[in-house]
Each structure stands twice: as C-alpha cells, then as structure tokens.
Amino acid sequence: MPNPSPTPATPAQQRLIALYFSILFVGVGMHSPSGLFSLPIQFYFKNSLHLSSQAVSLFGLVTAIPLYVSFVLGLVRDAWQPKRMGDRGYLLIGGLGLTLTYVGMALFPPTWNTLLIGTLLLALFYLVISTASGALTTLVGQQRLMTGRLSALSNFVGAVPVIISFWVGGSLSETWSLRNIFFLMAVISCTLWLQALWKSRTVFVPNEVEERTSEEPKPRIELGLLLKHPVALLAALIWIMWNFAPGANTATMYYLTNTIKLTDAQYGQYQAVFTIAFCPLYAIYGWLCRRFSLRKLLFWGTLIAIPQLVPILFITSAKSAMLVAATMGAMGAVATAAYYDLLIRACPKGLEGTLMMIATAGYWIFGKWGDLLGSWLYDRYKYIPCVVATTAVYAGILVVLAFIPRTITEDTEEQSEHRKEEYAG
User: Fold this and answer.
1) What is the pTM assigned to this prediction?
2) N or C terminus: which one in the chain shows less Cβ crowding within 10 Å?
3) How many CB atoms lie within 10 A of CB 11?
C-alpha cells in the first residue's frame, strides 16, 4: 500500500500530537539511565560505599551495555511490529518490564551486584520504550512536516524528567532509602503501559503504521539502505560528538562536591538549573525553525555551544554554580534542538527506528566512555583537562557540518519539496 503524501497537520491535530508526545517524552525520560533513580544510586556509591569517581563511571559504563547495541532493536522494530499495536506494543512490553524490575530492586538489599543486575534490566526495557518513542517522533515529524517543532517539543518536554531527576533526586538521596525510591519508580512506570492503550489515528498515521504491520508482508531488515544515505550517518555522528563530553558528568559531580563543596542537594539543583535554562530556547526553536534555514541554526548554535563548559571554571560557591548552570544551558539549547532536527530530516524512509537507535547507541557508548575518560583525567590531572577535551570535541562538529548536503539544511521546516518526496517514500 503506498504511503500518503506528507501534509501539514491542522491546528487541532497539532494540539493532539503535542499532547500525546508530551506525555510520552516525560514518561520515557523518567526511566533513562540518568533518570530519577540514577543520582541517588551515584551518591549511594560515593557516600555509603566510598567509591572513587572512576568506579562510579565504570558502573555507568557497564549498566548501559544494552544501549550500546540499541541499533539492533531499531532494525527489529523497522522489520517487525506487534500486530494491531505497532509501536504501542513496544511501549506495553517495555513499560511492564520496567515496573516489574523496579519492584524486584526494591525487594532486594542494595548491594553492588543487585544494583548492577537491576540497572542492566532497566536499561534493556528503557531501550524498548525509547526505540518506539524515537521511531514515532521521526515518523510523525516527517508525515506532518513537523520535524523542527517535534525536535523542539522533544527537547523542551524531555527536559522535564531531567529537571525532576536532578532537583528531586539530589534531595531524595539525602532523605529516602533506595528501596522507597524504587517503589516510587515502579508507580511512575505504570504510565507507559497505560499510554500504550491510547490509540489515535492522528498520531499513528493511517496507511503507515497500522496497515504496514497488519496487512503487508513483513519487511526485511535492510541495513544496506542506510549506507546509501551517508548524510544520515553524519547526522548521527554529530549527535554522538555533542554528547561525548568528558567533563560534563561524573568528573563535574566530584569537582563540584569535593572541591567547591556543594551538597548532594545543591549539586542536583545545579543540574536542574542547567536543564531548565535549555527550555526557553527550545520553545523559541519551534519558531526559529520555520523562519531560518536549518543550516544557519546548526552553524550559529554550534559556534555558541563550543565553549559551553568553560564557565564551570569560574564557580566558587553554590550561588555562582546556579548562575553558571543557567549560562551553560542557554549556550547549548539551539545546538541540541538543531542536531535532533537534523537527525529527523536525514532519516531514510523505512529506517526510522534504526537511525534513531544508532544515534542512541552512539550517545550511550561515547557518552559513557567520555564520562570514564573525564573521571580518569580528573583523578590524575584535576578538572581543567576535562574542559579542554570537551571543548575540542565540540569544535570538531563544525568540520562534520561542512559535509552535510545543502538539500537537507538549506530550507526552513515546511519549504523543501525534496524532503516531501523522500518522506512519501
């Protein structure tokens, strides 16, 4: 059955799409490996088990192993989806898996091995729900010519669980036991498998998801198709480089809590303010992407973001930490939204799950190895080398951008006839 030609969504459709994806992005983000449970576990290792920064980074590296091969699930998703449910089937499976895992972690004592096995399972089920979420975002963004606005929404609303995770997580680590935190997460995870029962033909595009999964023969896994679209791989590479950041995570936590003497709660607030500062510019990006070409947004966003970590070196107190966090967040917002917009635009038809999961796999592989590198640099040479390494990687993004074809980036969100043809398949 031929795919429908992409058409802009009506205002009513836009509102429903925005509501659906807002709930989905918050629900998925709460269970990311850096979600609400993450910071309490890190501080448990630091304060109760007295582990080094490298040990904490190594735990994160190991527990993210399922995400390193996330592109495999992306390929599976593009080749097969549960009959009559499509991506909602993956939301149901992943949501139920998360609920059961949280309950199991709450019932066992918080030893290294228990937390290791439990967090590995959480990463696996998070992979399932994020595969469905990423594929749906790409599919609907292309079919409704909303790539920029869904990118802005994804980053804006997706910041909510990050803010909650840091702001609340830092406080919970001081006042709640891990057992109670895991029970709380089990309750929160119920929203995912409940949302899997929400079926809307505005969101699940007719003739695209339901018909393909229930009426047509099962498509084959065609990884070779991706190799015919090098721009898609370049877009994924940019996303990976942006999230490498050796100085942004564990090294920063140890630097701010050990050297600057921030408390657990203050560090959580610092990370929350950092994320909050992205949000206004994420909202503005939904306007910018319809008035300026993606090429301009990519260039200027990257130029502003290159020195993003430098202000950390000027932190002297909790108050200055909050001011610096707000500055750094604003510096990275346009770049983040533009890079995700590029991923959606560059995705080949039929590989929505695969490309987004390649980007996700790269995000976690290089993000975790970057974090381990940052911890290694911090333990041996303190914090400045972490900032230098991160700044150098960000500068390299400008080189990769030079190889992105203008046919992908020269237009605003709704102008390109070339992309309309590609999205129609």
Assistant:
1) 0.68
2) N
3) 7
Token pair 């070196």 is found at 313
Residue 208: pLDDT over 80: no
Inform me whether the pLDDT recorded for 108 exceeds 90: yes
Helices and strands of the chain, counted as H and E runs: 21, 0
Among 200, 181, 58, 203, which residue's Cα sits nearest to residue 110?
A: 181
Q: Rounded to an integer, what distance in angstroms lies between the CA atom of residue 121 and that of residue 146? A: 34
> Sign of the CA dihedral 362, 363, 365, 367?
positive
Tokens 């891990």 belong to which residue?
A: 178
Task: Name the average pLDDT for the chain.
Answer: 82
- In DSSP notation, 261-312 reads ---HHHHHHHHHHHHHTTHHHHHHHHHHTTTS-HHHHHHHHHHHHTTTTGGG
Decide if 70 contacts 365 (C-beta within 8 A).
Answer: no
pLDDT tens digits, residue range 218-263? 445 555 666 677 888 899 899 999 988 887 888 898 899 989 999 8
